[in-house]
Amino acid sequence: MSNLLGWATDHQQLLVWAGVISLIVFILSLLSLPWLVSQIPEDYFLPKKRQPAEWKHLHPAIRLLALMGKNLIGYALIVAGLLMLFLPGQGLLTLVMGLLLVDYPGKFRLERKLVKTPAIFNSLNWLRKKAKKPPLVI
């Protein structure tokens, strides 16, 4: 116990910064998650196979920039979601939103499996209701 207290005393600045970052991520998630969830088409999870995104038909340079930006935001949300599992914030919802943005093999199957979890499905639809959007259909 005294070892932990000694460590906390020696690293006060680190603990303060961790608290500040946690608060910033918490506020950003509260502001951005409802908007992000409202942008998911209501029938997004219905097909067995993913439909190509509209931006995939754009110029290759624009497509590459959009893909890089989308993945960067997705990875940031995944990291923030993992942190929020231990710090204040909406960890599971943030993780789901990050996983929805990042591209990887088997992504659509995982998305469908996660969204079919009643707690996640109900939370997503609660956010959509607040944004005056129709509920997701699975």
From TrEMBL:
The keyword Transmembrane helix applies. Pfam families: PGPGW. The chain crosses the membrane at residues 14-37, 72-102. Keywords: Membrane, Transmembrane, Transmembrane helix. InterPro entries: Uncharacterised_PGPGW_TM. This is Transmembrane protein (PGPGW). It comes from SAR92 clade bacterium H455.
